[in-house]
Amino acid sequence: MEPSPRFTTSPTEAAAALLAGNLVALPTETVYGLGGLAHLPAAIQRIFQVKNRPTNHPVIVHIAGLAAITHWARDVSDAALILAETFWPGPLTLVLPKTDSVSDAITGGQPTVALRAPAHPLFQDVLAELTSPAHPAPGIAAPSANRFGQVSPTTAAHVEAGLGAYLGPSDLILDGGPCSVGVESTIVICSVDGVRIARSGGVTAEQLAAVVPVLTAASADSVPQVPGSLETHYAPAAQVAMVTTAAELSAFRERNLLNNDIGVIALAKDVDFAAPNWLRLATPKDPEQYAHELYGALRAADTLGLTHVVALAPPDDGIGTAIRDRLRRASQSG
Ligand code: TXA
Ligand code: MG
Known about the structure:
single chain, 334 residues, alpha/beta, eleven-stranded mixed sheet, four-stranded parallel sheet, binds threonylcarbamoyladenylate, binds magnesium ion
């Protein structure tokens, strides 16, 4: 089969397509995003259509770095500045009060905007191509490049498999290879009260706490909604079970011993935990590799027609916290 004309490796071509109002799926270090120029309302509208995403679910605006922050956000607290200086470009999203440059289409009508500077060199090349005297701080609005509620894509082929039928003839997929981190960015809400983690992700709670105080409970004032925290996100068609203890595992084995259509995700050190008739989907050597392989393994379960995935989660610290969060959400449906 001919490769789809939709794929490109050229950031120049990707930038030109965005400027013409098209959508471009872009590689980041976390997952692929479905990008449209943040200042073009028609492009933002199409992002929601292609994803089949409810319009009140706000999207992240991707910028080149700290220098662009004041174009999109105001009242940037010292803690937010320290976080941006420390972790950008990288897998950290900051929710801040928005400026008038941010349309309601992006924020779902909320007074805040989520900003992130992605580290993938091709994404940075696209932003550099878009930078001009008219647009000194270009922003690309981009949710993860999957249909609403489904598993996020970590390769260009995943994007085509999930969204190919919904993209237009002039939309592109910029192929930057497999995403290095493999789970989404950490979302931190920055207010006058301090900073609070709204979604665990590529930057760990320990890394954040090493540079700023992090609030643990939600503050009393109105908390912006983070629909990524809906229970039915990140789910394949196969039913996912997360186990964290030997007792949970024995109970799962007991119930499913005779089922041959079960896929297993577990660290290499836990290689012997599953029933021998179950298929190994991923055998990562450490939690970082677990995150890197997780979404591909969930997709493989569907490709192979498995009915269940059982995942032995890594410990609840470091990147393990984000892995457990995604597995828990994936296990809520299917
Ligand atoms: O790693 C990532 O964050 C990837 C890549 C593409 O950057 N993006 C991503 O986007 O995961 P998405 O749309 O799948 O999830 C973004 C999350 C959503 O849960 C959304 O509700 C939240 O960010 N969000 C966006 N704007 C917000 C805002 N103003 N206030 C609170 N949450 C917001
Ligand atoms: Mg998403």
